Amino acid sequence: MNIYLAVIIASLLLSWLLGILSDHLSAKAMKPTPPKEFQDVFDAAKYAQSQEYTRASMHFSTLTGTFNIVVIIAVILSGGFNWLDMLIRSLAFGPMATGLLYIGALGLISGVMSLPFEAYQTFVLENRFGFNTTTPGTFFLDRFKGMILTALIGGILVAGVLLFFRETGPFAWLWCWGLAVTVSLALTYVAPTWILPLFNTFSPLEEGELRTALERYADKNGFELSGIFVMDGSKRSTKGNAFFTGLGNRKRIALFDTLIKEQTTEEIVAVLAHEVGHAKLGHIRKRLITGFLKTGAVFYLMSLFLDSPGLFAAFGMEHISNYAGLTFFVLLYTPLSLALSVLSNMVSRKHEFEADAFAAHTTCDPMSMISALKKLSASNLSNLTPHPLTVCLEYSHPPVLARVRRLAAI
After folding, report:
1. Is 248 a residue whose pLDDT tops 70?
2. Confidence of residue 346 (pLDDT cuts 50, 70, 90)
């Protein structure tokens, strides 16, 4: 058996089996009553609903994961990648257009196949538990906008990568790395004003107690904000959130309108303090640098396998091409990607604990952060007792119970 094919199929199956095992163990780890720290926000009915939501989400994840792996393996073994390549080659376009069409077609097929699952999750699963507020019009418009943005931005990236690998010899991976970093920084910089408003409305937070408290905290801790905005998160979901976006003098905080509705001023200040903690403690800078280094390593590894005859033989390809090599490397990279995601999640969870501690110390009010986390967990029907394997594989944030206990110790 082709060694590349064996590695790809084995890694896909391993990833799938780990997901099933993780869900099974998390289901067994559920407790009949909420932890004592959460009994003020979870009554018996609410807690039972959160467990039902967790089980339903896990079942849906198993269904989609199984469907995806069956389709991918079937396409590989049936020669579907070669069939598509020969079809596009028959159009007799140049190498660049052929490559863009091939990768674009794969992306379009994947998007179309995932659409029914996304619709079910939004309009059946999320609706069943009272989260969904999205209309069909908004749902499909979001996907259309996302497709256009992906085609534009992804097209630039893919075209650049194909061009560099064709024209710049053994150092092509360095050129690709530079392009990816440049595009990533540019998107981070312009996203607050050009991209995010395509999907949501961002309104400046009106003058009042909350804005005064947030600005006072930011000033006291030497953190400059270019703006505090309210995002119409209720347009799609009842779930609350807040996030920082932008770089340099474009840093701004966006508060979901659902968050403002549910949380007190002190709790929202604590949420802001947590986000400020990420910046002050260097987490954002570290994540950017780590991400850039990872991108460079991926392009270097890609350059080693991009035109490997064995890799193309694994997919039954009649022709070797850079554009198909990009696609196949993504699948070959699966086991390393899984290992790196586990490491990345571990570092991210550490950063979240540190940001919580920063918020507690700079506000001198850990109880407000605790209260904010507990309210969010109740309104989002969070799983309070995930199994450690699930946390290891999937959680970029520590389980909320662990965060509350750390804060209570402060």
Report:
1. no
2. very high
- CA-to-CA distance for 53 and 315, rounded, in angstroms? 39
Please name the amino acid found at residue 333: Y
Residues facing residue 253 across a β-bridge: 228, 244
Are residues 348 and 357 in contact, defined by beta-carbon separation less than 8 angstroms? no
Contact (Cβ atoms closer than 8 angstroms) between residue 302 and residue 327: no
Among 291, 394, 410, 289, CA closest to 355: 410
Is the entire prediction scored with pTM above 0.85?
yes
Cα separations in angstroms, 9 against 159, 298, 319, 333: 28, 20, 22, 12
Q: What's the rounded Cα separation, in Å, for the pair 126 and 131? A: 5
CB 266 within 8 A of CB 365: yes
Distance CA 143, CA 388 (A): 34
To the nearest 5 percent, what fractions of the chain are helix, strand and coil? 75, 5, 20
List the structure tokens of 47: 């807690």
pLDDT per position as a tens digit, 217-246: 999 998 887 788 999 999 999 998 888 777
CA distances from 188 to 223, 236, 281 (A): 19, 23, 19
List, in sequence order, the alpha helices (H) in 79-198. 80-89, 95-120, 126-128, 136-149, 155-167, 172-190
What does CATH list as the number for 202-277?
A: 3.30.2010.10
Q: Locate the domains of the chain by residue range.
A: 3-128+281-409, 202-277
* Average pLDDT of the residues in 141-159: 95
Exposure b/e, 182-215, CB count within 10 A at least 16 = b: eeeeeebbebbeeebeebeebeebeeeebeeebe
If pLDDT is split at 50, 70 and 90, which confidence band does 406 have?
Answer: very high
Provide the 8-state DSSP code for 199.
Answer: T
